[in-house]
Amino acid sequence: MQPDLLWLAMMKAAFPGSFDPPTLGHLNIIQRAAGIFDELIVVVAENRQKKYLFSAGERAEMIRRLAGDCGNVSVEVCDSLIVDFLQKRGVRILLRGVRGMEDFSYEFELSMMNKALDSEIETIFMTTDPEYLVLRSSYIKEIASFQGNVSGMVPPLVAEALRVKFPRKNI
Ligand code: ADP
Prior knowledge:
α3 links the parallel β2 (39-45) and β3 (73-78). The protein has helices at 3-9, 24-34, 56-66, 82-89, 101-117, 137-145, 156-165, and strands spanning 12-17, 39-45, 73-78, 93-98, 122-127. The protein is 43% helix and 18% strand. Strands 3-2-1-4-5 form a five-stranded parallel sheet, with helices on both faces. Adenosine-5'-diphosphate binds at residues 17-19, 23, 25-26, 29, 96-99, 103, 128, 132, 135-138. Residues 17-19, 23, 25-26, 29, 96-99, 103, 128, 132, 135-138 line the site of adenosine-5'-diphosphate.
């Protein structure tokens, strides 16, 4: 088989992000993508320039537990450029989720940067399902820090992990 046909026969994609923490929006993209691609690698970013609430190990473990039912999903941590990670794994499809035009313009520029670094990489955008439109990890952390109710935004195990990070203060 020609290399290009081999690639088509086995559609592997990677879905990178911070997932700090994983939300129902992320999970929805993972589940839908798992139904399209033969293999999906969720790539948890570990960027030393960024400050995370959850360690890379904690974020990866939460996604492993949440995506456990999808047999074709694996989770890895990446502390290098995503294009280098993809090259090493032989993955050409980089999947990103978009919630609206603001996400799209950012994601579009990012895809151009990745294309400049490696012209073989193809970024594919998957639009959010409408009920997850406003879900954003940063908002969720802020709500949780004030002990707000995040149960409709994250799976129960993430809500519990947030409660541990932001314990209720006895006033
Ligand atoms: P964020 O803090 O915006 O959630 P991430 O880096 O964790 O950022 O996001 C990883 C990927 O998931 C990005 O492509 C992002 O656009 C996408 N994403 C995040 N939240 C949603 C959502 N609610 N619906 C669809 N895609 C999403």
